[in-house]
Write a structure and sequence with these properties.
The structure is a single chain. The chain is mostly beta strands and 123 residues long. It has one helix and eleven strands. Strands 2, 4, 5, 6, 9, 10 and 11 form a seven-stranded mixed β-sheet that branches. It has a four-stranded antiparallel β-sheet with strand order 1-3-8-7, with no helix packed on it. It is globular, with a radius of gyration of 13 Å. 34% of the residues are buried.
Length: 123
Amino acid sequence: QVQLVESGGGSVRPGDSLILSCSASGRESSDCNVAWFRQAPGKEREFVAAINWAGVGTNYGDAAQGRFMISRANTKNTVYLRMESLEPEDTAVYYCAADLNWGRLVAGSANFWGQGTQVIVSS
């Protein structure tokens, strides 16, 4: 079992940067791959980025390429998402998710989900 808690969301201006954190706990927390998803108002949930259990393999969605970076702390219980050059289109609730299966996770499915943290980008 894995429990996930997101933090770091807020309201920023276009072009700003923001770092989101996902804290994981539970007996499988160090074994799981972790990903960030987001859901904007009226839109489907979108894959943002994922990092594997060892913290060395990553995958990014189209919107995140070149602007966002996912990383995992050495303790393996915290995953970060650094977002740069934020745009109004990045406004969404960002969710942390975890799963033992890498392929399933990057395809949009996960056994464990956090409650989300809201990011608002506006001028």
